[in-house]
Known about the structure:
By secondary structure, the chain is of the alpha+beta class. It folds into two domains: about 5-170, Four Helix Bundle (Hemerythrin (Met), subunit A) (Up-down Bundle); about 185-280, Nonspecific Lipid-transfer Protein, Chain A, CATH 3.30.1050.10. Helix content is about 45%, strand content about 10%. The mean pLDDT is about 95.
Amino acid sequence: MSALRPVRPVRTAHLFPGLHDELMALLRSLAPDDWGRVTWAAPWTVKDVVAHLLDGQIRKLSICRDGHAIAPPGGAPADYDELLRFLDALNAEWVAAARRIGPRVLMDLLATIGPQDAAYVASLDPDAPAHFNVAWAGDAVSPNWFDVGREYTERWHHQQQIRDAVGAPGLVSRQWLHPVLDVSVRALPHAYRDVPARAGDAVTVVITGDAGDTWSLVRRAEATPAWELCTGAADAPVVCITMSDDAAWRLFFTARKSAELLAAIHIDGDRAMARAATRALAVMA
């Protein structure tokens, strides 16, 4: 176990301006028919996903920067499922209304809001408590760096949905994709929260490719959380899970795992112990 090190914070605020520039260049290159193409977030089209990206940035600035409250009907959600229903309703309501907005206006709005969004996340103390906890990681309170990282993965994977739909090259170099994966693997301890194991048992996840890395989950005795996420490979893991960086991001952001996606994951060891990792999600779903 000597090669294992606890995971460190992932800093992503500096990536927001460049990610925004890449999005705007992509949108300005689209043909009129491209906006109606269905993404793998079906039934959402490219235009719907663009509207959703705008909504997320406006909502973040309004609530966190400007103190505008959006109260769920009936008070704060009682549990994760109620929170998910509330967020799904907010998202659907905005996307439906935004179908009245043309692509040019959407791009004009994003051109105005995107730099404000980037400036806001850059202004935050990375280690201070965030306005929102990262619920998919099981956090009750999250530091700003984690909430900002969550927002970065949201911006990145929705842009990737657009790129996939229109056949544009993905932002999959290490600069862009490694932080997405480094934030997303923080879903693993929560995914394993109810998985029984002995103290010292380990699950190693190897992600290959330019943006890849190796992480291990280690079961700790009488600790909270019970599983600790580390970088590096465990000496004798109960199971080693290997996948490409392309398969990994699709796994973390796809609620319905296709047989093709699961077939791209190699499992060496206890397959039952691997199941929680293949079901992990770094999105609210």
